[in-house]
Amino acid sequence: MSAKSTDAARPRVGDSKKVHIADTAITRSNWYKHVNWLNVTLILGIPLTGLIQAIWVPLQLKTAIWAVIYYFWTGLGITAGYHRLWSHTSYSATLPLKIWLALTGGGAVEGSIRWWSRDHRAHHRYTDTDKDPYSVRKGLIYSHIGWMVMKQNPKRIGRTDISDLNEDPIVVWQHRNYLKVALSMGLAVPMLVAGLGWGDWWGGFVYAGILRIFFVQQATFCINSLAHWIGEQPFDDRNSPRDHAITALATLGEGYHNFHHEFPSDYRNAIEWYQYDPTKWFIWLWKQVGLAYNLKQFRANEIEKGRVQQLQKKLDQRRSKLDWGTPLDQLPVMEWEDYVEQAKNGRGLIAIAGVVHDVTDFIKDHPGGKAMINSGIGKDATAMFNGGVYYHSNAAHNLLSTMRVGVIRGGCEVEVWKRAQKEGTEYVRDDTGQRIVRAGEQVTKIPEPIPTADAA
């Protein structure tokens, strides 16, 4: 960095606006200012302490079972509560369920509903851009945990509307009392259950409390990182979200992220019966017992359209790498007499459906023998190619298209093509502008044999 640019970045005396530390370069002398030490302590320091304590605190079977159960409860507080209920309003919940999700979500110690949902809505609105608070474009580690342990300029995060959250009394209450909720639900409750239940106070604190928080947090962070890094993109590939079963297993069903980013207000992440999405199952179950209602689903027709469009896009990408022959509109126009003359002079030209093909190098490889293909040279071989002698396969039509060298003035199918152009209609084309040629749509393929020029 030049001295001039450095001076420009440094706030001057009397400046009303100070440069945020996150907007300055990290150096040996200021690196510690870039670190969010509070989050480092909460996300890394406390779990490390728990791991050290686990050396002399034995893990009892009852405590282990309780830790797993509480892991799922607090995990659902995030996936079904923070994420699908409050961030995306994909369903509605009764007051008892909202209170339960606000408490268990707070027990995951990932911030308040209001803070979490505000960032998540920005993530969806500005996916993969600089305004995305945990953009994977800045690296896998950054999207997983870096954005939490390094300071961010809050003004750089994209704006989102959270007026509905500000009007939700449960959200407001949890935000104002978040520290109390996090400490009580994150550490006190798991310790009390283990302590009062079977006398394992320290085990409840270490395993069901500290270490359980660590694993829930890391699972949630995988939604921001792995779900944008590995897997397929069956609905859209313009941005990074992906679908993967492993990510779904690690995140209580949030791993079908490509679908989620396309249809964020759908209460489901997994739409196939065999896909793992326990969050969806619990929301459905809550509806059956009257705790949840107004479960939102995108219409199957719209979902399938997105899937088909992406499949077509992938096919177009594969198609663009193949040789489909010179497009008809780029072929030179030949007179019939010129075509016959060139064939008599030794060039292996065959006319089929008004298109001239040079088969000189293919004569020796023709499956039907040299005599058969030689009999069509210099003639209108449309009828014999389309069933008069042999009804050629789609593969034969595709291969023949790569041998195009011209079109006959007044040729059969070419005239149809010309008329369509004049009328303003066009063939279906892919994303690159190339004509899509599907099986059975080759210009040389005629439904029924037609009389040849020789027969006339």
From TrEMBL:
Is Kinase there in the keyword field? Answer: no
GO CC entries:
endoplasmic reticulum membrane
* This protein's UniProt keywords: Electron transport, Fatty acid biosynthesis, Fatty acid metabolism, Heme, Iron, Lipid biosynthesis, Lipid metabolism, Membrane, Metal-binding, Oxidoreductase, Transmembrane, Transmembrane helix, Transport
The cofactor required is:
Fe(2+)
Q: Which residues form a coiled coil?
A: none
- Which EC number(s) does the record attach to this protein? 1.14.19.1
In terms of one coarse class, where is the protein primarily found? membrane
Q: Name one GO molecular function term.
A: iron ion binding
Domain Cytochrome b5 heme-binding per the UniProt entry, residue ranges: 331-409
Transmembrane region(s)? 37-57, 64-85, 178-199
Q: Note how many cofactor molecules are bound and how.
A: Expected to bind 2 Fe(2+) ions per subunit.
State the SMART domains in the record. Cyt-b5
Q: Which reaction does it catalyse?
A: octadecanoyl-CoA + 2 Fe(II)-[cytochrome b5] + O2 + 2 H(+) = (9Z)-octadecenoyl-CoA + 2 Fe(III)-[cytochrome b5] + 2 H2O
Q: Does the keyword Lipid metabolism apply?
A: yes
Compartment(s):
Membrane
GO BP terms: namely: unsaturated fatty acid biosynthetic process
Instruction: State the membrane topology.
Output: Multi-pass membrane protein
Check the record and name the Pfam families matching this protein: Cyt-b5, FA_desaturase
Xref: PANTHER family? ACYL-COA DESATURASE (PTHR11351), DESATURASE 1, ISOFORM A-RELATED (PTHR11351:SF31)
Q: What does this protein do?
A: Stearoyl-CoA desaturase that utilizes O(2) and electrons from reduced cytochrome b5 to introduce the first double bond into saturated fatty acyl-CoA substrates.
Q: Which family does it belong to?
A: Belongs to the fatty acid desaturase type 1 family.
Q: What is this protein called?
A: Acyl-CoA desaturase
What species was this sequence derived from? Monascus purpureus
